[in-house]
Amino acid sequence: MVDVPELVEQARQGRPRAVARLISLVEGASPQLREVMAALAPLAGNAYVVGLTGSPGVGKSTSTSALVTAYRRAGKRVGVLAVDPSSPFSGGALLGDRVRMSEHASDPGVYIRSMATRGHLGGLAWAAPQAIRVLDAAGCDVILVETVGVGQSEVDIASQADTTVVLLAPGMGDGIQAAKAGILEIGDVYAVNKADRDGADATARELNHMLGLGEARAPGDWRPPIVKTVAARAQGTDELVEALEKHRAWSEEHGVLAERRRARAAREVETIAVTRLRERIGDLRGDRRLSVLAERITAGELDPYAAADELIAGLTGEETAG
Ligand SMILES: Nc1nc2c(ncn2[C@@H]2O[C@H](COP(=O)(O)OP(=O)(O)OP(=O)(O)O)[C@@H](O)[C@H]2O)c(=O)[nH]1
Ligand SMILES: [Mg+2]
């Protein structure tokens, strides 16, 4: 058992080991998480969360590392969360990230953490907000969340972040891919990385064209900017930071930031509630209440929907009573 108040206090003071322990509790779906989250609740809500997504190899980790350098120069404390929704354990694909992030390894103003979410009910939706809350409570001003772009996770990350950066690179047929993956709806800022390669201008133009094809925007609506970067040489990073700051200011001003944070919290609650209900229903296999209902169905006294209602009412009644 972990001494939660002590651990939370140490994390609040910014002790890296305590932060790491807390995120491990999230990753391991520890039964003590409930206590951890209760202790963290009043401490969080200050960090600005930036999500980075895009196809494998597009330069997410390199860009993240360049952003860390830029934000550190501005005196911000930075948290980095690399989430791999497809891997059952940390390591593997994320190992390379550690190399790309190694220049920040000895900086006490930076926390870097990889997290695997496969195998968790609710996956990213459940674990990422909790890990973000840990980093937030530990005093990070900015939290960069890198997610490998595999289908649903790209859309998931958008719902976790205050600002979502979608990365593309020339010559990867990314334009078409982007349209297919629904990526054109989730980017608040687009980065065409690897701009040192041929075709970056064409990719940016194509993207600009596709973004312009959407429904007409009202005046004051956000028009996602496209920034060209060479992350490997930290070129365009200042422009990227500027675009992020602009989006942040715009979403604060238009109430979008608050709305997104509420939506994020709502999703988190929903995932926890559904997970708990599913656990309870799982527990019911072989339970007498279920067999009684089943008997009434087979006897023609009850339909399965009414039975399910009865079951849920019983479970939730029990939940609030106990
Ligand atoms: N030429 C060029 N190469 C780059 C640039 N940025 C990153 N790379 C290289 O592209 C490769 C992939 O970069 P990563 O940052 O690991 O890409 P990623 O999107 O994080 O990759 P995954 O996490 O595996 O999906 C590395 O070899 C980088 O050095 C760039 O601006 N120009
Ligand atoms: Mg990466």
UniProtKB/TrEMBL annotation:
<dbReference type="Pfam" id="PF03308">
    <property type="entry name" value="MeaB"/>
</dbReference>
<dbReference type="InterPro" id="IPR027417">
    <property type="entry name" value="P-loop_NTPase"/>
</dbReference>
<keyword id="KW-0143">Chaperone</keyword>
<dbReference type="InterPro" id="IPR005129">
    <property type="entry name" value="GTPase_ArgK"/>
</dbReference>
<dbReference type="GO" id="GO:0016787">
    <property type="term" value="F:hydrolase activity"/>
</dbReference>
<keyword id="KW-0342">GTP-binding</keyword>
<comment type="similarity">
    <text>Belongs to the SIMIBI class G3E GTPase family. ArgK/MeaB subfamily.</text>
</comment>
<dbReference type="InterPro" id="IPR052040">
    <property type="entry name" value="GTPase/Isobutyryl-CoA_mutase"/>
</dbReference>
<protein>
    <submittedName>
        <fullName>GTPase</fullName>
        <ecNumber>3.6.-.-</ecNumber>
    </submittedName>
</protein>
<keyword id="KW-0547">Nucleotide-binding</keyword>
<keyword id="KW-0378">Hydrolase</keyword>
